[in-house]
Amino acid sequence: MFCDVRFPDDISYGSSGGPGYSTSIVATEGGHEKRNARWQQARARYNVAHGVKTRAQLEALLAFFRARKGRAHGFRFKDWSDFQGTAQPLGTGDGNRTDFPLVKTYSSGGESEIRLIRKPVAGTVRVYVNGALVQVGVSVDSATGIVHFTAAPANGTVITADYEFDVPVRFDTDMLSASLDAYGVHSWMDIPLVEIRV
Questions:
Q1: How far is 155 from 170, CA to CA, in rounded Å?
Q2: How many other C-beta atoms can be found within 10 angstroms of the C-beta atom of residue 102?
Q3: How far apart are alpha carbons 5 and 7 in whole angstroms?
Q4: Count of Cβ atoms closer than 10 Å to residue 81 Cβ
Q5: Residue 186: what pLDDT?
Q6: What residues of the chain score a pLDDT lower than 70?
Q7: Which of 163, 20, 12, 172 is nearest to 78 (CA)?
Q8: Among residues 42, 35, 64, which one has the least CA distance to residue 52?
């Protein structure tokens, strides 16, 4: 189950983490390696423990954790290090196609990874055709990240978008563990979140 609600921004702002991969490495006796990338797409992990600084944040976290039933339900999370796309190419019109998924392209050294954006933030998506803002005849599904045109863009037109997005995650623990260091002061060892595929 996925709950279309965002983790509290004032707690996520103090979080740590980011994208990760799964790679198996076999080393030979001569020191050479064989590397096998198990995932084609990154999967992010976060730790939000250091974002809890006030009693109000603690109460908000406890309520949010209980409402999500620990690891049972997914939710939205703002990754403050990567939450925007600017002039991102979505595709080229062919006169028939009306749906284009939001994507973000990461390029370095001639290599690229295309990330599907499944959870855009409602009200932040701006769609352009050949650089001109489209203000009518286009809609965005904030639950799936699909851009829908009422009329298919003409053949050869370039569709781009600006947007903000959330990461679909879940808690990676079924138990919150805190210690009371002093009167009214709590500390947290670890509050892990992990990205989920939706």
A1: 41
A2: 24
A3: 7
A4: 12
A5: 55
A6: 178-188
A7: 12
A8: 64
What pLDDT score was predicted for residue 188? 66
**pLDDT at position 176, please?**
85
The predicted structure's pLDDT at residue 36: 86
**Residue 197 CA, distance from chain mean position:** 10
Question: Do 62 and 74 fall into the same domain?
Answer: yes
Do 91 and 56 sit in the same domain of this protein?
no
Please tell me whether residues 31 and 97 are part of one structural domain.
no
Q: Range of 125's domain?
A: 84-165
Quote the CA–CA distance of 89 and 99 in Å, as a whole number: 14
Model pLDDT, residue 187:
57
- The predicted structure's pLDDT at residue 53: 77
In sequence order, the 6+-apart residues with CB closer than 8 A to the CB of 65 are: 171, 176
Which residues, including other chains, have CB under 8 Å from residue 159's CB and lie 6 or more apart? Answer: 89, 90, 91, 92, 93, 100, 127, 128, 129, 147, 153
Q: How many other β-carbons are positioned within 10 Å of the β-carbon of residue 51?
A: 21
**Number of domains into which the chain is organized:** 2
- pTM for the structure as a whole: 0.88
Q: Compute the chain's Rg from CA coordinates.
A: 20
Enclosing H/E stretch for 16? strand 16-20
Closest Cα to residue 13, out of 75, 85, 84, 83? Answer: 83
